[in-house]
What we know:
Helix 5 (136-142) links the parallel strand 7 (122-128) and strand 8 (146-150). The chain has helices spanning 10-21, 52-58, 68-78, 97-103, 136-142, 156-163, 166-182, 189-210, 214-221, 227-263, and strands spanning 3-6, 30-33, 48-49, 61-64, 87-90, 107-112, 122-128, 146-150. The two termini are 31 Å apart. It contains ten helices and eight strands. It has two domains: 3-156, NAD(P)-binding Rossmann-like Domain (Rossmann fold); 166-263, ProC C-terminal domain-like fold, CATH 1.10.3730. By secondary structure, the chain is of the alpha/beta class. Helix 7 (166-182) packs across helix 8 (189-210).
Amino acid sequence: xxxxxxxxxxxxxxxxxxxxEAAKIGRQDLLVSNRTEAKLEEASKIAQIVSNKxxxxxxxxxxxxxxxxxxxxxxxxxxxxxxxxxxxxxxNGSVSFGTIRKVIDVKTAKVIPSLTAEIGRSQTLVxxxxxxxxxSVLKDLLSSIGDVIELPEEEMGMGSELVSCMPGFIASIFxxxxxxxxxxxxxxxxxxVKMVLSTMSATGDLMLQKEMTFENVVTRVATKGGITExxxxxxxxGFPETAxxxxxxxxxxxxxxxxxxxxxx
Length: 265
C-alpha cells in the first residue's frame, strides 16, 4: 500500500512522520508533495518527494492536507491523474462529499485528527462516502496514531468540537483556573501548572481505566458538607451557561466556515 500526503503543513507533517514511525511505512511507499518544495528537505529522509500529480497517480490513499482556500485548486490539479481506485482523504471538514464530487469523482473519506496524535493518543474522526466498501484499510492506518471513531458526515462538526477542538478548550479552561489560583497562593506559577496538569491527566486515566463517570469522581472526592463540594457547587451553578455559549459560538462559526467553503467551489 502506498500512502501519499499533499501538503506539509502542521497536520500533513505530523501524519507523515507518525505513519513512518507508528505504521512502519517504508520510504518507497510514503509519498509527499508541497507547494514550497524547499520545506520538504527533512521529509526526504522518510518519504519520496514528488509532484501532486505524480503522488495522486501512484498512491492508494491520497491525503489532502491543505488550507480550505487551496482545496479546490489541488483537487482540480489531480483529478485527471489520480489513481481511479485510490481513496481520497480530505482533512477539511467544512467541504461536503457532494461538493468534492463536483470537482473530482473518486472514493472519498474525511478525517479529523486531534493534536494528541503527536503522542499517539488521537481520537481521530472519520466518515466515508457511500462508495467506500472497505473501510478497514484507512481505519487500520489511522489507528497508528490513536483511536478511530467513525461518524456520519452530518455529525463530524460536533464531533470535531469534542475531540479536535477540545484540547484548546481544555487548555483555556485550566489556564483560567491556574491564573485564578495564582491570586490566592505563593506557589510559583510553573508549579501550579504542573500540579494541575498532572492531576488532570491522572484523573482522565483513572476514569478510563476504572470506567468511572464524572459524577462518580465528584462523589468520591466531594464529601457532603466538605471543601470540594463547595467548589463543585460553583462549577455546576456557574459553568453550564458558559459551556452552552461555547458550543453555540463554535458551531455557528463552523456553519459560516462551511458556507464560505462551499461557495468557493
